[in-house]
TrEMBL record:
SMART domains: HTH_XRE (SM00530). InterPro entries: Cro/C1-type_HTH (IPR001387), Lambda_DNA-bd_dom_sf (IPR010982). PROSITE patterns: HTH_CROC1. This is HTH cro/C1-type domain-containing protein. It comes from Acidocella aquatica. Residues 1-46 form the HTH cro/C1-type domain. It holds the Pfam family HTH_3.
Length: 63
């Protein structure tokens, strides 16, 4: 999906989407929810580190 299409579906400015992608702006929790709905994902996925599966668990401390 293009930035323009995402912005249109989320009813936000296309330039704002670009700034989010370039990490020039930080999204509010409400904005993350709005984008997650459009992208059909769990909002928590935005908070995952790159390359980390969403269902990864922390390593056990006793190992």
């Amino acid at each position: 999906m293009s930035q323009e299409e995402l912005a249109d579906r989320a009813d936000i400015d296309r330039n704002y989407v670009g700034k989010l992608e370039r990490e020039e702006n930080a999204a509010t929790v409400d904005m993350l929810e709005k984008l997650a709905v459009v992208l059909e994902i769990d909002p928590a996925e935005f908070l995952q580190r790159k390359g980390t599966p969403a269902d990864a668990t922390e390593p056990s401390a006793d190992k």
